[in-house]
Amino acid sequence: MSPRLFEGYSPDEHRPLGGYLLLSTAFEAALAAFVAEHRRSGRELPERLSAADLALLAAATQKLSRLIAKDRVTSFARAPFTRYTGEGGPSEVTEEARGTGLRLAIGELLHCPFCLGVWVGGGFFGSYLRRPKQTRWAAAFFTMLAASDLLQLAYTAAQERA
After folding, report:
1. In the chain, where are the structural domains located?
2. What single Pfam family name could you report for this chain, choosing any that match (predicted)?
């Protein structure tokens, strides 16, 4: 692909558009492979997702995305692509993407819980279609952690008001 293709998009700031293209292509290729394999397997898609499963998967996606993107303990996985910039929320750090090209694009993906939500949600959804029972259990675990976080924050807020 010609580097000139993206010329002029962001003349004052480097944007890793080629890296974004590679990441998007990887996601779409994985999705296409999953759909093709699902069709070959002869399994039917469920008619709909129950509201309870949707809520469970949504909460789990939010929590796992945030855990990957912000947690102190997972910073080792982001370190090749990000730079530590300071403390964030409770048990979280703030980082910025570093490097150029694909490395910068991966860094931007890894430190952004909103960006990771697409990937994590896709994983949960694909897993749910294959193994709903096991996926519900995994999602319940991450949803439980999200609820625990909310209770910890509520407890801390109550202590500060007392």
Report:
1. 3-161
2. DUF1360
